[in-house]
Amino acid sequence: MKSTRKKISIVTPCFNEEAGIAECVAAVADIFRNELPDYDLEHIFCDNASTDRTLSILKELARANRSIKIIVNSRNFGILKNTYNGVLHASGDAVVLFLPADLQDPPALIPQFVKLWEQGYEIVYGLRSERDEDFLVRTARKLYYRLLSKLTYVEYPPDAGDFQLVDRKVHDAMRRIDDAQPFMRMMTFESGFRSIGVKYRWLARKHGKSHNRWSHMFEQGLNGIISFSGAPVRVALIAGLLISLLSILYAIGVVVFVLLGRIHSPAGIPTLIAALFFFGGVQIFFVGILGEYILAIYNQVRRRPLVVERELVNFDDPTGDVPNDKP
Predict the structure, then answer these.
(1) Average pLDDT over residues 119-140
(2) Which residues neighbour 229 within 8 Å (Cβ) at sequence distance 6 or greater?
(3) Do 177 and 286 share a domain, yes or no?
(4) Is residue 31 part of a domain?
(5) Which domain, by its residues, includes 24?
(6) 32, 118, 261, 273: which has the fewest Cβ within 10 Å?
(7) Is pLDDT of 66 > 60?
(8) Residues 243 and 196 in one domain
(9) Which position has the higher pLDDT, 56 or 180?
(10) Pairing relationship of beta strands 160-167 and 94-96 according to DSSP bridges
């Protein structure tokens, strides 16, 4: 007989997290034991080809606890693809899309998320109102997410990250989005449904340093803008028209001053050099913007899998095939 208990799936990506991975497992298990005893737990760990003891620790814990499931990638595919692949494997009535192994997003909020979900909200998202990180990084993040919120066609609340609990309906809608470069925190809001935010403090790491470098964050941020906004192309178009108009006005001004005898120099070499470098730089910049969109199209049409899985642990389907819900 099928159980009437609801299941909550939690997805945790990991890469070389041996110092804190057992603490993450224990923290989530304690919450479900003490605060959510009426719910079944499915804790999915997506290992991005760790080179330390992360995987061996997880396998040892999984042998004694089948609620712990492990996806082992054949190589490091990056945090976005790795996390979203784990989400695709989730089977719960509700899914916590992202709980970091270092617990910077506190699992203590999960019971509150579940309570709001039971009240009828299909998307319950965390709002990082405060951050325990360097001023420069904190400021850069805030500026970026406010820019993203203004540029995108999706109603996206600034400071919302991937730490979200979504209903099965939202999860099914996300699965139908065929995106080679998934930007998960925006996909939920693109799907629609009722949503509510919960403010919290984003904590500093307890163990080690983040593997998400500046170059990775820049790539992820650019992916968010390219995937959910046509604003860069439109800005390039408008800027190109304005620069062309200014160039025409400048040329007319030069002709007028020559006819009036105000310009006696036979050649404006400095002006010519400045204009050449300026317009050359503008063209390269605009071509770069177009190139990003072309690259996004190229990645989409190649139809590559999100990740290549080497091993699955404690999954009912040993093949690891993710059902195709796309039309």
Answers:
(1) 83
(2) 148, 151, 152, 153
(3) no
(4) yes
(5) 7-215+306-313
(6) 261
(7) yes
(8) no
(9) 56
(10) antiparallel
